[in-house]
Amino acid sequence: MLLDLMLGSLLLLSALLSLHSRNSLKSGIFFVVFGLLSGLLWVRLEAPDVAMVEIVLGSAVTSLLIFKLIATARIKAVKVHRIRKFWAGVISLAFLVYMIPYLLTLRKEQRIEVLVFEKLSMSGVESPVTAVLLNFRGYDTLLEVGVITLAVFGIIALNKGDKVYVWRDPLVQSLSRWILPMTVFFSFYVTYLGTFSVGGAFQGGSLLAGGLIFLSLTGQDVHIGESIKKSLLLLSLLVFCGVGLMYAVTGYGFLVYPLPLSTISIILIELSICLSTALLLYTAYRGKV
């Protein structure tokens, strides 16, 4: 209890310092701390799969994007009037007060986790998280993939060819080449693990993206044709929509999997999301395909 209270307090403090720091570099550092603390809190909440994404993506990959932005962009200070901050705080507090009685009086049989476990045998996977993301609310995950894809293509369109920091140390370059194959193996393993335990496509993709970005930091690149890279960027959207349309045409409904084919369908979508997520995050860091 004391540890949770301490982590929660530090999380709130790091968020406030990141938001209100006038120095962009300090703000970025506090954001990294915020991501690490969030990951620890998710571990305490017994959600290690979410913690994995928060630490790898929220702290490592996102921090690299932030520091790259700080180093290459001319950031103008935006002055926000105190009255706006005050009203934003009042509205947030009012919403919290409004929701607390509902959350405290919610009956156990009405909770989402109960409904998920009741229908888990019909999902085709054993992991409740994967069942929710890729079966019960597949529409939401499809839209999330679409938003990430559009955001990265926006980064590519706005790229001005700015130089990025390169760590040209022979030892580090060799280390990055040795680590990448292991990262690829574990990223696919984590993706496959998500069908019946902790893991999943976004976790595996984030892990693979970290290995690719580490390689890029040493001035090296993955030797893949540009057309193949573009195809991989769109792979998850194409596979997701393709599987959904296939079942819609055959009479089951869009993203409604028949039980005998649900497992293989979800694994196929997960593998495509893993590859696309990795390439999308890697491309977002580099700013080009």
Overview of this protein structure:
By secondary structure, the protein is mostly helical. The chain folds into two domains: about 1-105, no CATH class; about 125-289, no CATH class. Helix content is about 75%, strand content about 0%. It contains eleven helices and no strands. It has helices spanning about 1-20, 25-45, 50-70, 80-105, 110-120, 130-135, 140-160, 170-195, 200-215, 225-250, 260-285. Helix 6 (about 130-135) packs across helix 7 (about 140-160) and helix 9 packs parallel to helix 11. The longest helix has 28 residues, at about 260-285. The relative contact order is 0.11. The model has no long low-confidence stretch (mean pLDDT about 80).
How are the secondary structure elements laid out?
Elements: H1 2-20, H2 24-44, H3 48-72, H4 82-104, H5 112-119, H6 128-136, H7 138-158, H8 170-193, H9 201-217, H10 226-249, H11 259-286
Helix pairs in contact: 1-2, 2-3, 3-9, 6-7, 7-10, 7-11, 8-9, 8-11, 9-11, 10-11
- Summarize the main sheet: none
Strand content: under 5%
How big is the Rg? 21 Å
Count of domain modules:
2
Number of strands: 0
Distance between the termini: 47 Å
Uncertain stretches of 5 or more adjacent residues? none
Portion in helices:
over 70%
Number of helices: 11
What is the averaged pLDDT score?
81
Can you write the helix and strand succession as a string?
A: HHHHHHHHHHH
Shape label: globular
Derived structural class: mainly alpha
